């Protein structure tokens, strides 16, 4: 259910999405499912540079066990632009990772 709500929020116009970024980031607490994590990343990617305050939370997802979560975290960080450059070393580490 949360994943479906996140998908809806991620597809809303930027102005509406920005109102919910705090609540969206809060969904990462408490060990959410991979679907929720990827939904959070999609929403943050759609928010672009406005999601920079959540860069640390998204960077933490680069260590997730699910390849899709890692991928969506990379997409979200890329959408944040140069302000997310602190995550660059982690992304480089993923490129060297031999797993999926």
From TrEMBL:
Alphabetical list of InterPro entries matching this protein: ARM-like, ARM-type_fold
Pfam families: HEAT_2
SUPFAM superfamilies in UniProt: ARM repeat (SSF48371)
Protein name as catalogued: HEAT repeat domain-containing protein
């Amino acid at each position: 259910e949360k994943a479906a709500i996140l998908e809806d929020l991620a597809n809303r116009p930027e102005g509406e999405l920005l109102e919910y970024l705090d609540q969206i980031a809060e969904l990462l607490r408490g060990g959410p499912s991979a679907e929720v994590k990827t939904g959070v990343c999609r929403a943050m990617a759609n928010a672009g540079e406005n999601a920079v305050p959540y860069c640390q939370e998204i960077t933490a997802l680069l260590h997730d066990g699910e390849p899709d979560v890692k991928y969506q975290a990379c997409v979200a960080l890329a959408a944040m632009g140069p302000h997310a450059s602190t995550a660059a070393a982690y992304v480089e580490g993923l490129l060297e990772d031999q797993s999926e």
